[in-house]
Amino acid sequence: MPSRVVTCSLNSNHSKSFALLLSSSLQEVDHREIILREARNKFRVKASSVFLSGGLTLAAGESLPELVSQIWVGKGEPYCGPVAGTQSPASNSELHLISGKSYLDDKAIAQLKTVGRLPGVVLTVGLPDLHPGSRFPIGCAIAAEGIYPALIGSDVGCGIALYELSPRPKSTLNPSKLASALQGLDDPWSGSVAAWLSNYGIARVSPFDKTSLGTVGAGNHFAELCTVERIIDDTAAAQLGVLADGLYLLVHTGSRGLGGSILATETANESNPYIPPDSAHFQEYLTEHDYAVRWAVANRDLVAHRIKQCIMPSVQDVGDDAPDTQLDLKKITDVTHNSVTKHPLTVRDTTRELWVHRKGAAPADQGVAPCPGSRGSFSWLLQPTGDGQYNAHSLAHGAGRRYGRNALHTGTKINKQNLTQTELGSVVVCEDPDLLIEEQPDAYKDVTCVVEDMAEQGIASGLVVLRPLVTYKVRKDR
Ligand SMILES: Nc1nc2c(ncn2[C@@H]2O[C@H](COP(=O)(O)O)[C@@H](O)[C@H]2O)c(=O)[nH]1
Ligand SMILES: [Mn+2]
């Protein structure tokens, strides 16, 4: 059964609060006891009373009324919370948190609750990779009547694709040699971008085509050569075309500057504009959004194509003379994790078509989705399960960050060698020292917990586990 989230503030100091996840399991109906225990841990005070809005107290053994989403905890002093009727309007939307073992940051839950109060928002879903963003949370799906472009973020179309580089490499796979073969990937592609883009139904020209198409783009993006660590579902893996001995490539990148330019246009006059479904601008925005989504797919394919050209001599899989205008690799899956798409959803007994904004969430209705961990951990291929209603047809798109970038710059001297070779024996190509620190494996949550949480909640099951061999970030300094 779903859990609920309640904001718990200190009665004597309202700036101190935390998000409390209350399980709906029958064993835990003494909410007061649970709240006091958590509050003592979080606030480090001898909490002894729980107030509801207006000053009513929660008695021992009593459950919290269903609609209550804010409480105040005191140490015996009189109630100091808002008087009844003066609070900001309660959220009309539903909040579903899909978690269990995975760490969920209070700030991310608070951000998601804030999003849930936006007009037109009907359902917010926090996936186990949920973590705080600069304004809006990441690792979530937000179902609304219209569209909020800022909820998708600037990298419209960002996603992860998996390609087969070789079903059975003929030479031994040496991570260092493969890494040295990855050259020139940050330079603009020398082929015909117009011809490449035309394969994706794109006839438009943008300033980003020549400079950025076919480049990974550093930041949190990566391209990773992988082998298969474990096949969990043999039948499904065979259907997908994933073989135990194959060499595979994960590509995580997006629309580079194109998505950012679309968001900048939308937010020129207002930081979080809302586009209602009946507005004249609605279709205009969707046209731009769909363009960026297709451009990002074309970009992932071109990155994969260029990587194949770099490394194929190393795996002796030559002999393909396809023209340099289309992908000559087998693509296993490609899912977009920053986008907005329409889905039927039943929320509070009402079924309607809603626009599901995904900011770092994979779609659950498009077959197998990669769930990468970090450059130093395994990545998973997931089979979506269930009817998609509780999770708004969405899955975790990765492990999600455990620590923000700044928190990782501790000032301690870093041994670069430790960061360019991982515990799994893989090699990292990253010549930007800051990025090397910010994207270290410890920056991310445990992807196994993320996958287990989704399996537990019946939204996905793991099919295949991939092992990193070489992770490519960037050769040039930022
Ligand atoms: N296999 C790898 N996974 C990685 C790496 N760096 C990050 N990650 C995971 O990808 C997602 C992407 O999230 P996004 O919000 O940046 O789109 C992230 O949550 C990590 O779990 C890597 O180098 N290799
Ligand atoms: Mn991404």
UniProtKB/TrEMBL annotation:
Mn(2+) 2 binds at H252, H337. It catalyses: a 3'-end 3'-phospho-ribonucleotide-RNA + a 5'-end dephospho-ribonucleoside-RNA + GTP = a ribonucleotidyl-ribonucleotide-RNA + GMP + diphosphate. It comes from Mycena metata. The active site is at H397. This is 3'-phosphate/5'-hydroxy nucleic acid ligase. The keyword Manganese applies. Its cofactor is Mn(2+). It comes from the Eukaryota. It holds the Pfam family RtcB. Keywords: GTP-binding, Ligase, Manganese, Metal-binding, Nucleotide-binding.
